[in-house]
Amino acid sequence: MYDTPSIESDSVVFLSIKEGREPTLQKLTDEQGVPLVPFLLVDSIEFEGPMRPDLPAALTGLSGDGPQDTAQARQIVTAFSENAFRRPLREAEATRLGSLIDTELDAGRNFAQATRSALVAVLCSKSFIFLVEGDAETPRTHINDWELASRLSYLFWSTMPDAPLLAAAKAGRLREPDVLIREVRRMLADPKASRFATTFPYQWLQLADVGKFPPDKKLYPNYSKTLEQSMVAETTSFFGEMLDRNLGIREFLNSDWTMMNGPLAKFYGMPGIVDAPMRRVALPAGSPRGGVLTQAAVLSLTSDGARHRPVHRGKWVMESILGQSPPRPPPNVAALPAAAKDQPRQTIREQLGAHVTNENCATCHSRIDPLGLAFENFDAIGAWRDVEIMPPGTGEHRPVDASGKLPDGRVFSTPNEFKELLAENLDLFALTLAEKLATYAMRRPLTLADRESLSPAVIALKDKDYPLRDLLEAITLNPLFLRR
Question: Is residue 288 within 8 Å of 294, Cβ to Cβ?
């Protein structure tokens, strides 16, 4: 960032309270906190090198090269703006920025200061800060080629479009199906696509909640930050492996392999893996792992640090796998009563039995609770257990019961049986995952028209078991992807 100009002026480019709030600093809000002028608060800025050597040559004007006149300043700002806005500069924008340069020069600023003021204006523009699609002057329902280039680049790479994307947009051909699919495949083959393989599962599977409630160290002494990071890495690496190999999405529900490193292998009780790098590992026959539902990261994010929460696990399955949102609980519903110490111990399943007898709870919990109780063999951090350690009371701790009955009447006895039941209804999961992907790609909720457009393209992949990369291509080639 550039320093505030040292000469006196009515227009202050930057204000800083790093050294304390000076009485001369501009007042930004009134007494009620309502902004008096538009402003942006920046907490910190971090740069990572090496700096790009391919920046427009005109930018060298800031270091003293070139004629340092108005024409060069405009050239610098135009080149910078088109990179910042990810599209050509509009005539009105060029006029405003040129006027700003002229005003700064007329006020006595030198070439570099005037040019920097215009660059600051660019960096404060909504066209830089946001991915702007459409404008108020010309209402339209679909995005243009430049906006499509940004939609693709931020979907797969989490950054601005590269030269080939911009070239296709400039030629007005990016929306042509053959050009679009070529660019999608090129981008997915690029190492930068690993960003998508990390950021999407974070959103879809709610991985940001892992570690939100740090496990009680007395109850879970083996839990560590390293283990937590390995848990999350298993899930994101699993998604990356699915994407790289274009595997069918059934593997998300139940697979005979997972991604693992030394700390996670020790936690899972898998011998022969001691080092840190994540790699694909075949699971032994009958392993309760496989797929994302029984990965430690997913199991731990629905816990409170002391105990697992079957209701939260069931809600997670409904939202993330079945694409259903359970209604909010009714107000003023009392918490489940805890058993007295002089009464027989109760399993969590027995405590949740109160949901069935309470008419305020039964309708929803009859659908939610079985989905969570299917994972009773896993504790709050996702470790396997055969015996349930129950709250204080009389009697012995009892073997875990992970059985259940789905609303459609199908029954299961183990986590693996439950996963197999989910995989039997793969079409529902495919539509759910497709909607999650499309929502992420378009950065907005889907409309009914979007869903109607998407559904046939997804179901067309049924015979191939819904390969993940094919599913992504179907979304980007679908007419909904061009809608604002």
Answer: yes
Instruction: Give the C-alpha separation, 325 to 314, whole Å.
Output: 11
**Burial 93-132, CB ≥16 within 10 A → b, else e:** beeebbebbeebbebebebebbbbbbbebbeebebbeebe
At 177, the amino acid letter reads P
Domain range list for the chain: 1-130, 225-328+336-423, 425-482
- Rg of the chain over CA atoms, in angstroms? 28
Residues making up the chain, counted from first to last: 484
Spatial separation of the C-alpha atoms in residues 468 and 196, rounded to whole Å: 13
Q: How far apart are CA 267 and CA 384, in angstroms?
A: 9
Mean pLDDT by 10 residues, the chain (484 residues): 36 56 66 79 74 54 67 91 93 93 91 91 92 83 94 96 95 95 96 96 94 90 93 97 97 96 94 88 93 96 86 91 81 62 70 66 75 91 85 71 89 95 94 96 92 94 96 95 90
DSSP 352-412: HTHHHH-HHHHHHHHHHHHHHHTTTTB-TTS-B-SEE-PPSSBS--EE----EE-TTS-EE
CA dist 18 and 481 (Å) reads: 44
Alpha-helical (H) ranges within 88-132 are: 91-106, 111-124, 126-129
Element (H, E) at 313: helix 310-320
**Which structure tokens are listed for 33?**
């906190």
> Kindly report the CA angle at 153 between 149 and 159, in degrees rounded to 5?
125
Q: What share of the chain is helix, strand, coil (3-state, %, to 5)?
A: 50, 5, 45
CA separation for the pair 193, 157 (Å, rounded): 5
